[in-house]
């Protein structure tokens, strides 16, 4: 029997005995999931449910994409979800040549090497001088300084934090994509034929799993976007009120992230 999982939804401790959110068959969305893993969700009632995960082909057919950074690229930079084992040279090349908002945000985390562009809002550029090197005439030399720093004890710690943050963001994006896909499956069950082609091909299994649950609830389809939120798992979490209160305080940061993800779902639903 799978162990009981303690689920926290920003202060509320809810128990879902049917699904272990850390089981080996559950998608963790951090690069090493089984092809047939299950996505975990709820309907706002605290009961965790296992859905057949929407495949990438299904998501593509539904035009659902919320990734801030390509997971395959991230895996080459940081092979481990905890951020360890990262490639200093790979990260430096990413920071140097990628002009995305993610890269700009990461650059801002290294103020010794980068600064905000005084002429372009939101753009973060290399400083004019780094470690005595003139970056205006020797850009490569300045990026070499950054590579050297990332290999120091302090630099490698900061780099691992970057990797862990990026993997957490990927997981949130993937959860959001799955939630949006489940909404579409619910809408199809309710008679909306806009996704009929995908429903009978790439999304057939995922939509079928949604239909099984939809048949037993009258909640709005938007409820199917809810993910597992923050959860304590793998440690035999207690269901006592005192333990729930203590663990719930520790889950505050994760709850905040989940709240942001749900807010993004609400905004995205309006554009479906």
Describe what you observe in this structure.
With 272 residues, the chain is of the alpha+beta class. The chain has two domains: 5-66 and 172-269, no CATH class; 71-162, no CATH class. It contains ten helices and nine strands. The chain has helices at 56-61, 71-77, 88-97, 101-108, 139-150, 153-189, 196-199, 204-214, 241-250, 252-269, and strands at residues 5-9, 12-16, 38-41, 49-52, 114-116, 124-126, 129-130, 133-134, 230-232. The strands form four sheets. A three-stranded antiparallel beta sheet has the order 2-1-9. Strand 5 and strand 6 form a beta hairpin. Residues 1-17 and 230-272 have low confidence and may be disordered.
- From the spread of the alpha carbons, the general shape counts as elongated
| Secondary-structure element series | EEEEHHHHEEEEHHHHEHH
Helix content: 40-55%
Strand numbers in spatial order across the main sheet:
2-1-9
Cα end-to-end separation = 39 Å
| Low-confidence regions | 1-17, 230-272
Number of helices: 10
Radius of gyration (Å): 21 Å
Mean pLDDT: 80
- Strand count, sense and closure of the main sheet? 3 strands, antiparallel
Tell me the strand percentage band: 5-15%
Counting helices, strands and paired strands, the structural category is: alpha+beta
Overall domain count:
2
Instruction: Tell me the total number of β-strands.
Output: 9
Keywords: Signal
Signal peptide: 1-17
């Amino acid at each position: 029997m799978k162990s009981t999982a303690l689920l926290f939804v920003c202060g509320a401790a809810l128990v879902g005995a049917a699904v272990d959110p850390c089981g080996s068959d559950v998608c963790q969305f951090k690069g090493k999931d089984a092809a047939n893993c299950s996505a975990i969700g709820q309907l706002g009632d605290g009961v965790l449910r296992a859905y057949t995960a929407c495949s990438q082909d299904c998501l593509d057919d539904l035009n659902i994409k919320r990734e801030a950074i390509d997971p395959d690229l991230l895996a080459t930079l940081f092979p481990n979800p905890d951020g360890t084992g990262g490639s200093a040279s790979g990260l430096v090349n990413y920071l140097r040549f990628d002009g995305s908002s993610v890269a700009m945000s990461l650059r801002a985390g290294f103020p010794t090497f980068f600064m905000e562009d005084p002429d372009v809002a939101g753009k973060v550029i290399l400083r004019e001088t780094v470690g005595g090197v003139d970056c205006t005439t020797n850009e490569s030399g300045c990026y070499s300084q950054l590579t050297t720093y990332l290999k120091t004890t302090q630099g490698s710690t900061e780099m691992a934090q970057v990797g862990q943050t990026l993997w957490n963001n990927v997981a949130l994006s993937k959860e959001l994509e799955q939630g949006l896909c489940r909404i579409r499956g619910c809408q199809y069950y309710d008679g909306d034929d806009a996704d009929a082609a995908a429903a009978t091909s790439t999304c057939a299994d995922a939509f079928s799993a949604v239909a099984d649950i939809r048949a037993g609830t009258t909640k709005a389809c938007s409820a199917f976007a809810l993910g597992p939120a923050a959860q304590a798992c793998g440690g035999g979490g207690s269901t006592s009120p005192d333990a729930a209160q203590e663990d719930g305080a520790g889950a505050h940061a994760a709850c905040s992230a989940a709240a942001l993800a749900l807010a993004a779902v609400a905004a995205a639903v309006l554009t479906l």
